Predict the structure.
Amino acid sequence: MATYVPRVLLCGDAATFKKIIGDKPAEIVGQVTCERAGDEANLFYGGQLLTDEALNRLLDGTAEYLIFTDLLEHRDCLEISKLRPQVISAPAFAKKIRDGFFSYVTLALLVEVLNRKNFSGRVLDFDCYVARSDFRTRLDLNVVLDCVAENFGGELFPIMKNVYGEIYATFDECRYHVFDAVVLTRERTPEEFIDALIQTDALTEKILAFARRGSELERWLDASKNFFAQIETFRTNNGAWHLLTKRVPKDCCVYVVTHKDVKLDALPECYRIIHAGHALAAQDFGYAGDDTGENISALNRYLDEITALYWIWRNTKHTHAGIVHYRRFLTLEDQETFDVTKILSSTEIFTLLGEYDIIAANEHLSERNQLELMLLPTGQPDLIRIAEEIVRKHLSAAQPDYLDAYDAVINGFTLFLCGVFVTRRNVLNAYCEWLFSFMLGATLEMRDKVKVGDRRLEDLEHNYSRMMSFFAERMLTVWLTKNHLRIKTLPIMYRKDV
């Protein structure tokens, strides 16, 4: 991380100043003297009386702080001139000015910008800027302010929960979230700023960054206007807030997974039918298949719709994507009968995923746990036991941190139904990377090594051969259990005519 070296006007002895601040960086760019005449005290700079107007000019260009080594002179300065957040004693500077420029004027403008832009959701204070301000209760904001505490460099007092809506202990806890804006304030070189943009890219379309006047970052932002859809600049003491709007194209595609002719010609525009297991199909219905590009279509008899999910993951780039089934569709409200006009639309998806991280089917509560539910279509307890052992072995090898969540779900009585979901691309990618890191190996072992009597799985009726799909269906619940996502659940609308 770049080191911020504040430019200071010094009232006092330079050696004394260095002794007080220790190894804290500072560049002395001018000397101010304090002279008393009776009860009056005056400041001089370059042999000239330092008026309020002249001091304002100096602190808006030449320097970022006026620092006093003598506490009484500092007190007298505050009495003879208006209180300025940049006029500070050397001990206060040493203790409170951390690794970024701070003044209350800068904070006040941040609040004004956030309110002026009418953000309506949540804003992420990525560098814990507000925590450095000593505020203990919420700012006068129209938005909820969250922060990532690992960037703070120290412990946050419990009272800071009054300032922030959510305090994330690590970036990992919010990496799947979406925010109206992300605030970046720490001193960064252009290269470090680009790294921060990449790290937070999936979180937001807008960055609110502070750049000091004359800094490398300010020059880079000025030269990089074409990289962004829009840059708005709001100037304050010795720098400016820059509201950067990214160029972010959006497209949504929800895949309707089928293995038969669904007879649906009037789906909403963002829906596309995909034929799962197309490589094995005896009949072609004219739909896109899951057997092009990088695919596992030939494993469909074991994994069902999961082969389509794999194809979506490896062969598409939609910013928002998901899967539903040919007879199961997400909808905003419970529907007694199927109505194609009630299928969740792209507009509704974008709106919901502006607040939540994933849209899933309502949690299903059963009087049986998940292993017992698998017994209903198969009647093969030994087969279920073997499959569970194989899945657990592969999960333990590839994703050991998920064993606790796996055990909780498999032995539990609820799950997000049918593996149906819609989400943003980064969430879909993360889930699929996790799922297929162990599920493919488990499926291949089940296919190659397990028999019922003397018959291999591929020779058995589908309810037996698809055993791995029963486990795969439950893995969405396992993954969501372990991760920090804001989940919106919706009812499923069923088609009963297919």
Observations:
- Residues 254 and 271 are 5 Å apart (CA to CA).
- The first helix runs from residue 14 to 21.
- Residues 7-96 form one domain.
